[in-house]
Amino acid sequence: MRDLKAVIGQALDVSLSKLFPDLSPQPQSNIEIPNDKTHGDLASNLALKACKPLKKSPLEIANQIKNYLTENSKQLGIADYIGKIEVQSPGFINFFCTNKILSETIHEILDKKDNFGKSDIGKSKKVQIEFVSANPTGPLSVAHARQAAVGDSLANIMSFLGFKVVREFYINDEGNQIRILGLSIASRYKELLGQPESFPADGYKGSYIYDLAKQMIESSKPKKIEDIDSNLAEFSEFGASTILKIIKKELEDFKVKFDIWTPQSALTKKGEVTKIVEFLRKKGFIYDKDGAVWFRSTEFGDDKDRVLVKSDGTFTYLTPDIAYHQDKFRRGFDWVINIWGPDHHGYIGRIKAAVQALGRKKEDLSVIIVQLATLFKDGAPVPMSTRAGQYVTLQEVLDEIGPDVSRFFFLMRRVDSHLDFDLSLAKKQSPENPVYYIQYAHARISSIIKKSGKVDFKKADLNLLKEPEELDLVKILAQFPEELEACVKMLDPFNLVSYLQQLAAVFHKFYDTHKVISEDEKLMLARLDLVEATRLVLANGLRLLNVSVPEKM
RNA sequence: GCGCCCGUAGCUCAGUUGGAUAGAGCAUCUGCCUUCUAAGCAGAGGGUCGCCCGUUCGAACCGGGCCGGGCGCGCCA
User: Fold this and answer.
1) Based on the domain organization, do A57 and A157 belong to the same domain?
2) What is the ipTM of this complex?
3) Which of A105, A111, A356, A440 registers the highest number of CB atoms within 10 A of its CB?
């Protein structure tokens, strides 16, 4: 269907230029699948676009194009695929397909199997997707979980489409928040040893801090209370590394894999952070003011210039991050994609500025802002705050509802839209749960194929498929590759989720209207081809989302 | 005050280079299992696409101005 669109598009362009050679520039032909079936299988608005420059009525233009296409259908390569062309008011040109395109689609799917939808539009472009990158100061929150689901699924889809994808987790193991983590643990440590003191005001209050303090007491030789304050780094280090292990475990349980874990401290140790300031200074993007070192980010469209080195000599958060981005590009990535929470959207301007200061185009970096997910339990929102230690961790969600349903729920809305995650609904193993709707379609087909005992596909006469429910099914199957491309274009796996729901709906309708297994042997064989193709596409889609594909439910 | 996101059915949301009668799920109501899995299907009700101007053959979509909600605006990370 996608190829057919291209062929028709070209045929339209040719006919327009033959009919009106003086028209310049030529309007772009726009071909889409109409909602209303009486408008054909494909429709073009070319005549409407061309009417203004040509100063003619769109209906007249459309009819001229239609006649040209009909007369030259063989040369234009559309004769076998287009059965009828109609012009409808106010000037749409509607195309009605023949069965040939449908049977070709089914055969293509049955041939390619798991590879249907795979393409090389990525042209082996090297892409890095950095996501989650949570500070190792506490277990992963629901916000991280959504980012993980988005990043992982997007990475799957992009790999499938020919991009060379690397998934990376940036470990923010330096800076203020790590110091506060150490302070928090030390405070609990003293408390457990019977010397309670006031807990730091901005400390992490979660119960896991007690666990960490306990572990330190048990594993290391207990320190003298008076030594603690001079050994804060040890508390920080232990806390960060232990929490990182927890994070890794949570992600593993969520079926999210990373190729590379890059700690900020590694860049610092190599001196990259200091070097990046010198580098930018040499390029002339640096100035000194009020005892601090500033980056002239406004030169690249940022709202204001940014401090890189504070007057006390320490770096701001931005500085190592610039070094990190330089490191990314040095490693040869053509395209760097960062997935961040909404609290970082004000940060986009400065990092894009930095990327340009490093000599890259701003398009080489894409930032996806994933809006927050609010958990609902029994109709009420679950409150969340990391510092107060009052939040549901990814682990708890996983324990309660499992990775399949969780992943799916996190992808059910566009990334830029707030997501209400209804734990009570997700937990239900019932019809209201949309994950089962798709999986159920796959299970039903598996059951039919098993019962039919058929192993040989592609031998049937697919011209026997004439019912509207059958044709609808083939048409939506044909759209799978386009939907995957849309995910990359939008940088959002949502399109795939939405597509799979539609596909399942069309299948369920077909299932309820027509029987596959029947006395009519020839028809049965054709329908078995059709449902097997459907099964393959459902499986491919679910696999890209990392949702399991059950044969029985 | 400035910037970003959002405002579409009772609720949660699709609708993306402007296209034909604005869709889905949930919720409510009515039907469909002696036949491949009823975790399904069919049907009904439900809309001033936040409001007002503008652009044009055509606007939920583009532009301007309001109203309302969320977030960000630090020599924090």
Assistant:
1) no
2) 0.93
3) A105
